[in-house]
Design goal:
This protein is α/β, with parallel strands linked by helices and about 160 residues long. It is built from 9 helices and 4 strands; from the N terminus they run H-E-H-E-H-E-H-H-H-E-H-H-H. It has one domain: NADP-dependent oxidoreductase domain (TIM Barrel, Alpha-Beta Barrel), CATH 3.20.20.
């Protein structure tokens, strides 16, 4: 990827699922700082340590599973629902707006036309700092996917031929 960037074939390089451990192990060896790291990010898993690392290098976080992949405990969370009522929005809009205000790149996936329309209606309101604090308090510090699990590294290494 770095070779292709040097040849002008790419403008930037992105990575995914780089946890603080993976980032600190590999990125210092890179000649090119990634522009974006796509990781699981939603009110239940806010990636606070990773975001501090990325901020130091002006690397953007792209939210994967921004709506918790339909996790009802997130979509139906009392805080989320009370804010949806307060702002006259749906739960998904509150979650996505939180993520945008936290500085994440958010690209929610849906095939449902009504949800696609709803996902775009995020720019006519702002969550107050008090409401942002309520959503920040939902962080569980753990997500649905654990890239640092040994089985993940083994699976990835077995799928690729790595040459020196």
């Amino acid at each position: 990827m770095e070779e292709a960037k040097a040849e002008g074939k790419l403008k930037s390089i992105g990575v995914s699922n780089m946890t603080p451990k993976i980032w600190n192990t590999f990125v210092p060896q890179f000649a090119t700082m990634p522009s974006v790291n796509q990781v699981e990010f939603n009110p239940f898993f806010q990636q606070k340590e990773l975001r501090r690392i990325l901020d130091k290098h002006d690397v953007k976080l792209e939210a994967w599973y921004p709506l918790g992949h339909g996790d009802k405990s997130l979509i139906e969370n009392d805080v989320v629902l009370s804010l949806a009522k307060k702002y006259h929005k749906d739960a998904g809009q509150i979650i996505l707006k939180f993520e945008l205000q936290e500085g994440a790149i958010v690209l929610p996936k849906s095939q449902n036309p009504a949800r696609i329309k709803s996902n775009l209606e995020l720019f006519d309101f702002e969550l107050s700092e008090e409401d942002m604090a309520q959503l920040r308090a939902l962080d569980r510090g753990k997500g649905a996917h654990e890239p640092d699990a040994p089985s993940v590294a083994e699976m990835l290494l077995s799928a690729y031929k790595i040459e020196d």
